[in-house]
Amino acid sequence: MTSRGPEADTFQAPETLRSLLNQEGFRLTSQRQKILDLFEANSYGRHLSAEEIHHALAAQGKKISFSTIYRALHMLVSLGLIQEVELVEGRKLYELSTPSTNPHHHLVCVHCGAFNEFTDEQVTQVSARETLQRGFSLVNCQFTVLGVCPQCQKKVLTTK
User: Fold this and answer.
1) Which residues have CB under 8 Å from 127's CB, separation 6+?
2) CB count, 10 Å around CB of 10?
3) pTM score
4) Are 95 and 104 in contact (CB under 8 A)?
């Protein structure tokens, strides 16, 4: 299976998607198309969990099992159409992978799981330099910082 990486263009015509999937030995099923449509309909930068995808599709009257969603997400990640972001304690979220997606990183609260995205050119430059020096080819750079958010800090202070 060939990963297309972050340069993958998810806003392709269905025929192009169908061709890409066929090339990799997959079909463009209605379930896969519904999941991609959901990502494309969301605002840019929005991260979705498998549970949120299931809930959103159910709210639209579309019934897709969790196992189908997980299989589709795994396949779409492997093709580079979406990115998987693992946050605290194995919680996985997904976002579109497009040419316009800027390298960004995540600040995650270890108590409540809230997160914020941030960009930092130095992190991106260090990643690119280290990748080059070690003979790798950079596909994606995700940096996750774990901390305690202001709301959880307040809760800790008020319980003492």
Assistant:
1) 138, 141, 143
2) 19
3) 0.69
4) no
pLDDT in tens, 28-51: 888 888 888 888 787 555 788 999
Distance CA 144, CA 105 (A): 6
For 10, which DSSP code? S
For 29-47, give the DSSP string.
Answer: -HHHHHHHHHHHHSPTT--
Tokens of 33: 């198309």
Q: Please, what is the Cα angle at 40 between 29 and 72, to 5 degrees?
A: 35
pLDDT, one tens digit per residue, over 61-81 is 998 999 999 999 998 888 878
